[in-house]
């Protein structure tokens, strides 16, 4: 069994080109016994964004708090807590904080996607 508070998990600044004010935490993955997958928590500060990018693996997202926009293959969708999103492999995507508070979402990817 593995149980831990997100407050105790290392926060890593996302420094990829196009990223602005994004923190990543790897909550559960192979190191905790979940082979092949990783559940991450992203916190995007007001005015921040993830890079607009694509990759071969899919990911599943769940919005925890704040308000933002999910860009997916040329379309934008406003999201808020309780929304989920599926990004297929190869799709161009981006998460943008459009609100006044942190935009926080869970992102589950195959292990190779936790870079």
From TrEMBL:
<protein>
    <submittedName>
        <fullName>Cupin domain-containing protein</fullName>
    </submittedName>
</protein>
<dbReference type="InterPro" id="IPR011051">
    <property type="entry name" value="RmlC_Cupin_sf"/>
</dbReference>
<dbReference type="Pfam" id="PF07883">
    <property type="entry name" value="Cupin_2"/>
</dbReference>
<feature type="domain" description="Cupin type-2">
    <location>
        <begin position="41"/>
        <end position="109"/>
    </location>
</feature>
<dbReference type="GO" id="GO:0046872">
    <property type="term" value="F:metal ion binding"/>
</dbReference>
<dbReference type="InterPro" id="IPR013096">
    <property type="entry name" value="Cupin_2"/>
</dbReference>
<dbReference type="InterPro" id="IPR051610">
    <property type="entry name" value="GPI/OXD"/>
</dbReference>
<keyword id="KW-0479">Metal-binding</keyword>
<dbReference type="InterPro" id="IPR014710">
    <property type="entry name" value="RmlC-like_jellyroll"/>
</dbReference>
């Amino acid at each position: 069994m593995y149980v831990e508070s997100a407050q105790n998990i290392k926060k890593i600044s996302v420094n990829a080109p196009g990223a602005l004010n994004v923190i990543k935490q790897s909550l559960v993955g192979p190191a905790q016994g979940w082979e092949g997958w990783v559940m991450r928590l992203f916190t995007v500060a007001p005015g921040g964004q993830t890079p607009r990018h694509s990759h071969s693996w899919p990911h599943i997202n769940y919005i925890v708090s704040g308000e933002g926009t999910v860009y997916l293959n040329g379309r934008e969708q406003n999201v808020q807590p309780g929304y989920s999103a599926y990004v297929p492999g190869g799709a161009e995507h981006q998460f943008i904080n459009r609100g006044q508070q942190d935009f926080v979402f869970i992102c589950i990817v195959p292990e190779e996607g936790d870079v």
